[in-house]
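Render this sequence as a predicted structure.
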Amino acid sequence: MTPRPQFDAAYIEAELQELGAALNTEVTAFLIGGGAMAFRGLKDTTKDIDLVVTTEVEFDRLLAALDNQGYEEVSDLDETYQQLGARLCVENDDGCRIDVFNRQVANKLIFSDGMQHRSEDHLSSGQLSVRLTALEDIILFKAVAKRPDDIDDMNTLVQTNLDFDAIEHETAAQIELLNGKQFTTHIRESLDELYDQYEVQTPLEEVIDEYYAQYMDELEVRLVLSEDEPMSVEAIAEERGLDLEHVVEQLDQLEAYGYVEQSDSGFVDTGKRDAFTE
C-alpha cells in the first residue's frame, strides 16, 4: 500500500486560509490532532487536518466551502478511520485529507464547553476563525482515536508541560456528557500501549484506573440483568457472590446513567447503550 502523503504547517495554513475565503458566512472551527501539534512545533507533518465544529449550521457551511474548494468525499475509508466517526472525510488532489466532526469526536468523546474554553485563537481568514485545541484535550483525543501514529503523538505530548489536573477534570466532565465510563477503557488501553512502547507513565494512570475499576464493577452487575425479568438486589448479590452494599452502589450508578431501572419486582436492564461505542 502506498503511504499517504504528509503535509507541514505551511501547507495546512494555506488550505485553511483558502477555506476561509470560500465561506460566505461565519464559521468557528477547532483544530485538533496533528494539525494543531504542527502549528505548535510538535510535529513536522501530518496526514490529516481534523476540524471540529459545534453546530449543524456551521457543519453545513463548512461542507459547502470544502466542496467549492475542490475537496471530494472519501468513500473507501479503512476500518480505523471508519471507527474515528468523522461526519465528513474529504480529500483534495494533493491527497490532503480533512476530517470534519460535529461536536462528537472519535465516536467516544464530545467536544465540550471546557474544551472550547481552553482552545486559543490561531488564524482568521474571511469568515473562518480557527482555534487550536489545548494539548490537554488533544492527548485525550489521541488516547481514544487509536490511529497508527497516535501513541507516538501521545509520547510527544507527555514531554510538554501538560496540566494533568485539567485532563482529570475533563475526563470527569466527559463521563457526565456521555452518561458512562466506557470510554475510559480505551484510554486505559492507550496508556498501556504508551508504556509498552516508550516506558512512559503519567499521573493520568491513577484516575483512569479508578474509573476503569468502577466501570467493570458496574458492568459485572449489569450483565446479570435482563430487560424482561426483574431481579432483586439480593438475587443479584447471590448470583455474583457480591456484598449487598456493593451491589446497591453499582445499581445507583447504573440507574443514574439510565442503564437500569427499578420496578416493584426488582431491577431490569433498559437496553440503553453507551453514547458512543465502537
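Summary. Residues 204-222 form the longest helix (19 residues). The chain has twelve helices and 13 strands.
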